[in-house]
Write a structure and sequence with these properties.
Elements: H1 2-9, E1 14-18, H2 23-35, H3 39-44, H4 49-63, E2 67-70, H5 76-90, E3 94-98, H6 112-130, E4 134-136, H7 159-163, E5 166-171, E6 180-190, E7 196-203, E8 208-211
Parallel strand pairs: 1-2, 1-3, 3-4
Antiparallel strand pairs: 5-6, 6-7, 7-8
Helix pairs in contact: 2-4, 5-6
Length: about 220
């Protein structure tokens, strides 16, 4: 969400296809980060006048951003149709999909791994055809919660690792209950660069990541 908003603020047409959240939930997250109003207060409706004023102003700013929110697509074929139309009509510059394992494929496959492999390959070819980056969120296997995530932890298909130009993991090195937590960003694969780690702070209430410097 943060990447999509940032890119859109530069005037680049951006599409977010969410198979998990409603458009209302997505907008709520964007508003929380932009206004610094606790998202929990938004969900409960316990907003003060100053909060409402901030939200009203932010809504006007968000409305001008070239962001397309799509929450009705469920199949790979629907996603392809939507993305091609946005490319032809609006010159789409970025696509974000949340998340890959929720996409269904109308084709016939012997198992889910084959289905996911076809999905990732199609998305890779779509990215090359339309000349746009596609960011696909992905679930990890359950054992990834007990250790530093690895490429083998990508759930349901090794094709995700194979087809992706970059694989980036976000995880906590230790459990934290604070409202602002330490997050490690691990670049596990980069087709045209180095791999490595950097560190972030994540503000749960504002749904916001910030970079930090560690000595």
């Amino acid at each position: 969400m943060q990447i999509a908003e940032r890119i859109a603020s530069k005037g680049v047409e951006t599409a977010i296809i969410s198979l998990e959240m409603s458009d209302y939930q997505i907008i709520q997250k964007i508003l929380s980060k932009k206004t610094r109003v606790n998202s929990y207060k938004m969900r409960l409706g316990t907003l003060e006048d100053q909060d409402l004023a901030k939200i009203g102003q932010a809504c006007g700013e968000i409305a001008t951003l070239p962001i397309h929110l799509i929450t009705t697509a469920r199949t790979l074929q629907q996603i392809e149709n939507i993305v091609r139309k946005l490319k032809n009509k609006n010159d789409l510059g970025l696509l974000v999909i949340d998340y890959i394992q929720l996409i269904k494929n109308k084709g016939k496959f012997n198992n889910r791994e084959q289905e996911v492999a076809d999905i990732t390959r199609t998305l890779k070819l779509l990215s090359l055809e339309l000349k746009i980056p596609i960011i696909g969120l992905c679930q990890l296997n359950r054992n990834a919660t007990r250790q530093e995530p690895m490429l083998s932890d990508l759930r349901e298909s090794g094709a995700i690792e194979q087809d992706a130009d970059n694989v980036i993991f976000l995880y906590q090195e230790k459990e934290q209950e604070d409202s602002i937590i330490d997050v490690t960003l691990k670049i596990a694969k980069q087709r045209a660069g180095e791999i490595g780690k950097t560190y972030l702070k994540f503000n749960k209430a504002m749904s916001e990541f910030k970079g930090v410097i560690r000595c």
